[in-house]
């Protein structure tokens, strides 16, 4: 979630009748005013329960290698993620048969596996533009059965993240704790603050910046949701794309001891893609 890799963010909304509602102590601990501390997904919380039933684990097989990403369930048969997750070494999109999605558990090894029948891109991406949109919708071969405890869709928002606003992010990527890179079978939850563009983050097009002290994402978080809670509903406003992290260095210490990790990431706004989302899902997912 933060190792000079690029991840991406996007946000949108779904029908109220099938969306996930907030009821989690894990997310509570991120928002508790008395305990709040900005955290990265890497140094974020490993939930004690499967508190985010819309989070999906995505594996793309390339020969003997497996590329891992994160996604979000937006309708019974559709999962939203970053387009770059599907790119092969030749910078071409892989075939649907190489993609597997697991949902229903906070642990990627225990989620139920779904196969992908196809995927929908924006018109610009389909036309082969070099400046393609880093967003894609995976269509599953069968519908996910929602029980609203282990599986549910996240709502999508037409709203745009505001500078200074705190968003929650989730990803199946590497977790960084005190400069140690740790693999976790569970997704990790953290907070990021929406920032202005800077020398550390230069958003393009429909992107925005987020991060700060002990905030950020890392490898394999790509495609994960950036969301907030509105009227007790989880509402996705962005998607993890990429970023980088760095430490301050204490030059008075031997070997220039590093301290204070900062992360800055690029995220994709969901709002500009609302029409594309509704069209690509035959109206089963749409922004509110």
From TrEMBL:
InterPro entries: Peptidase_S1, Peptidase_S1_PA, Peptidase_S1_PA_chymotrypsin, Peptidase_S1A, Trypsin_dom
Signal peptide as annotated in the record: 1-20
Superkingdom of the source species: Eukaryota
One of the GO biological process terms: proteolysis
GO function term, MF aspect, one: serine-type endopeptidase activity
Keyword Nuclease part of the UniProt annotation: no
Keywords: Disulfide bond, Hydrolase, Protease, Serine protease, Signal
Keyword Methyltransferase assigned: no
Span of domain Peptidase S1: 41-282
Assigned protein family: Belongs to the peptidase S1 family.
PANTHER family with a match to the protein in the record: FI18310P1-RELATED, POLYSERASE-RELATED
Name of the protein in question: Peptidase S1 domain-containing protein
Native species: Panagrellus redivivus (Microworm)
Lineage: Eukaryota, Metazoa, Ecdysozoa, Nematoda, Chromadorea
